[in-house]
């Protein structure tokens, strides 16, 4: 396991390691959304990734980097869904047992997928403290190796490969890339990939107003919790970690907040205009661009659509 902030070489190595197991997801464009935003948008469609989310990258990189010894008692994590699926999927790939802690109100589509990969689920109350406590209990009982959903350098390195591909697959240099932020695994990886592979590209984050901890942390220079948590973007409810925050502080230009109404409007555009199944968390990046059109006018912008694991019985429109 790496000891420090991912390097250019470690991101390249992670990309080689995970490539046989993941899709190189398409980069799509929309004339309609370009016109609406007065910018040129390039959508990196991680909703079309294995397990339906970018998290497959980080989960695979972390688990493929473990030794036989670390794998023998299985793997455990806590997650409301996409990282849970990533760990269950990657554990199945290496033939290890997966013990997943999920909040009791996790979307059914994500619970069923985790079960489908053969993982054992333990439910808990939906607070970071309860998730952590339940995982520690499993570690005591089983000796499983814990893979943190975002505050883990191997996970961050794996997530960085999405932006690396985006930069490689868009012929022209991007002015900006925007990713959603929850715990910051994807955002810190994206910021590092831009720094190494496209130094002229600025990185922004989109964050729900109803889980606005990263923007507070970014302004105050220390890890903060959100003043209140109430958002449709269930994948972004967690706060930053001590590994993700310093990277974000160093390499991210700004964090832009959006309301649930703005997230739903962006999600609807992606469904109707681009025919893409996108979950609310995955639409946050586009929502932030739509809200701040003047700031991004005339620019070439990479937008990471993070996932498409949405409960079709509970669409917000």
TrEMBL record:
One GO molecular-function entry: L-serine ammonia-lyase activity
Keyword Lyase: yes
Domain Tryptophan synthase beta chain-like PALP, first and last residues per copy: 19-307
Coiled-coil zones: none
Annotated InterPro entries: TrpB-like_PALP (IPR001926), TrpB-like_PALP_sf (IPR036052)
Protein family membership: Belongs to the serine/threonine dehydratase family.
Keywords in alphabetical order: Lyase, Pyridoxal phosphate
Name of protein: Pyridoxal-phosphate dependent enzyme
Swiss-Prot/TrEMBL GO biological process terms: D-serine biosynthetic process
Cofactor(s) the protein needs: pyridoxal 5'-phosphate
């Amino acid at each position: 396991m790496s000891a420090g902030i991912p390097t250019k070489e470690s991101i390249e190595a992670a990309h080689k390691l995970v490539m046989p197991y993941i899709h190189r997801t398409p980069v799509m464009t929309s004339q309609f959304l370009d016109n609406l935003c007065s910018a040129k948008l390039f959508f990196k469609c991680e909703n079309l990734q294995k397990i339906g989310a970018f998290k497959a990258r980080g989960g695979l990189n972390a688990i493929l980097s473990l030794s036989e010894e670390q794998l023998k008692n299985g793997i455990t994590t806590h997650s409301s869904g996409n990282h849970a699926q990533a760990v269950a999927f990657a554990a199945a790939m290496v033939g290890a047992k997966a013990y997943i802690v999920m909040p009791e109100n996790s979307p059914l589509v994500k619970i069923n997928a985790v079960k489908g990969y053969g993982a054992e689920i333990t439910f808990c109350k939906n607070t970071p403290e309860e998730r952590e406590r339940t995982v520690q209990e499993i570690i005591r009982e089983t000796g499983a190796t814990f893979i943190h959903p975002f505050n883990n350098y191997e996970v961050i390195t794996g997530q960085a490969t999405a932006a690396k591909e985006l930069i490689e697959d868009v012929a022209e240099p991007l002015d900006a890339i925007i990713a959603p932020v929850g715990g910051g695994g994807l955002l810190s990886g994206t910021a590092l990939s831009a720094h190494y592979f496209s130094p002229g590209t600025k990185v922004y984050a989109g964050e729900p107003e109803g889980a606005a901890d990263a923007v507070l942390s970014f302004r105050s220079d220390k890890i903060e919790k959100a003043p209140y948590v109430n958002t449709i973007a269930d994948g972004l409810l967690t706060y930053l970690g001590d590994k993700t925050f310093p990277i974000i502080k160093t390499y991210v230009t700004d964090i832009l907040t959006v309301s649930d109404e703005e997230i739903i409007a962006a999600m609807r555009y992606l469904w109707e205009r681009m025919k893409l199944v996108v979950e609310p968390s995955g639409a946050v990046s586009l929502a932030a661009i739509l809200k701040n059109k003047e700031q991004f006018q005339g620019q070439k912008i990479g937008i990471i659509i993070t996932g498409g694991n949405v409960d079709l019985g509970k669409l917000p429109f």
